Every structure is written in structure tokens, then in C-alpha cells.
Amino acid sequence: MKKANWLQSECGGLYYRGLCELTKDELVALVYGQNNIRNVTKQAVKHKTVRKVAFQLSYDGKLYNGTQESRDGLSVTEVLRNALKKSDLFVDGNEMIFCGRTDRGVSAENAVVSLFTKSRLDLEPNDSHETEYYTFAGIEFKRYLFRDSQFEIGKEDYNEIPYTRILNNILPEHIRIKGWAPVPDYFSARHSCIERCYKYQYEIGRIRVKDGNLLDKFNHGAEIIRSLDDFYYFSKHDNPKANYNFRISELFFNTCGDHIVMEIRSYSFIHNMVRKIFSWIRRYAETGRLDYRDIEPAEAEHLVFCGATYRHKLAYISG
């Protein structure tokens, strides 16, 4: 029977209506179950409480639509959520907060995501905090203040559910949990972050610099970018609330084999900013052009999120 006729049959119609009643998460789990989470038997996790943790993870961005959920493709967030559900570690109503957004094709080495998950320990709430207000680019924000002791690994933490092992047994090989860290209840991988780092690696053979030293020209372009405090022309302009007025904390180039590598650090990045910065510096090195108009973002697959910095060092347990 042809596919269209089967869907019109009584059996096919029931199946189709059943699919229509599924949520997006359930459809993703069904369609990508064999390819994106391993087919293991779900077992109920014995737990006493719920706790806040931070996962450090790496992933191959070429296979995903970034960390943002959309209709355009499968995101890292969706695959991780499905693995948490499959392992019975998921907490209903929980929100997974990533330290930074990555687009389709962008990979990560040390991304951080914070969430509540189940715990086998009898823990007291880790919710002690103070607040302060700070100004970034002329706008006032509130942030939570914690103590170093709230991030320390306790003896009991080594008897915790082995989150890393359980999730890596379910997740596809191109998404790896590298470790988990105890964090306070009000900690946010995004809002508690004070600096983010990206690296962009590009083949030297694809760059056309006529005169002078290639690395010197790229680092001179980096010096120009470091002097800017308005990145309007380095964004996709898809967020009407975006703040373009700030400065980056670090930007430089070095070489690694037959590649040139850009490393950039900042408290904040706007959409497409890192890829457009590399594209502009390459254009400047090749042509000497100094204006900031008509900047096309460089290819996403060469960009890697390298890490997030917090006021308090996160202590990870690998098991």
C-alpha cells in the first residue's frame, strides 16, 4: 500500500492522529530515538531530594541546530532533555540554562548548563545568597552573590547519583558530559557568568595576504576591534533589545600548524558577533578596508565555544 493511502486508512489515520497529539519533545524522542539517544531501558532513579547542578559538556555543533530550540532542526538542548528523561533524572518544570548561545554548526569544548535534577542525598537547600546591582554598558542589572563554600565538593557528593556515567551511556557520542559540579540553587550558568571565550580556527591557505606578515596583520586588525565600544555592525540585528555598546576584554591571533586561530573573550556577545569579527579582520588583512559595513559572518563550523568563567570556581566530579 502506498504511504499516502496507508495514512488515509483507518489504521494509518489513528497513527497519524496519535502523532499529532504528541508534544515536540515526544516527537523528537520518537524520531531521533535510535540516532540521538541510545536505546537503553528506562529505570526509575531512587532519590530523596532535588538539587541544582552544573554540567560541563562538549558537543559537535555540525550535527545540531545550536542550543536554541526551534522548528528548523534538532538542538543540543532537546537531546540533553531527552537523555535526562530517559534516565529518569529530569525534574518536571525544570529549565536548562546554558552559559551562552551557540548557533547551528558551532561546537563547544567546555560549555556549562545549570539545572535541577534528582539527588539520592538528603540535602538541605543550598539557597543562601545576597544580591547586588551592577552596570554593564549603561544598563543596570541584578545578580546573586554566593560564598565559596557553596561550590565546594562535599564528602557526600561522591556518593551522589553518577550523573556523568548515566547520561553518557544514553547520549550520542558527539555530545559528552565531562563532569558535574554542585552549585547554589540561585546559580545560573548564564547570568552568573562573568566572561565567555570562543576560538575561531581557519586554514592559512585560504587567506590572501599580499604584503607583510599575515599574523601581524591579523593582530593589528584585532587591536582595532579591541578599541571599539559599539558593535552594531557586527550583529545580525534580530533582537530589538540587543545592547551593542560594550567592550571586549581580550582578542588576539596565533598560529597552530597550517591554521590561524583567533581567541576572543568578553562578558557578553551578540548574535553572529564572533564570526563577523573574524570576517572583518580577514577582510582588513587582505584588502586594508577599514569600514564596518557589509560584513558577512564567517563559516560557523570553524567556531568553538571554549569556556565560561565565574566568580567562584566550579569543582567538577567526573563520575
From TrEMBL:
Gene Ontology CC: one annotated term: cytoplasm
InterPro entries to which the protein is assigned, alphabetical: PsdUridine_synth_cat_dom_sf, PsdUridine_synth_TruA, PsdUridine_synth_TruA_C, TruA/RsuA/RluB/E/F_N
UniProt gene name: TG124
GO molecular function annotations of the record: pseudouridine synthase activity; RNA binding
Protein name per Swiss-Prot or TrEMBL: TG124
Keyword Isomerase attached: yes
UniProt keywords, alphabetically: Isomerase
Superkingdom of this protein's organism: Eukaryota
GO biological process: mRNA pseudouridine synthesis; tRNA pseudouridine synthesis
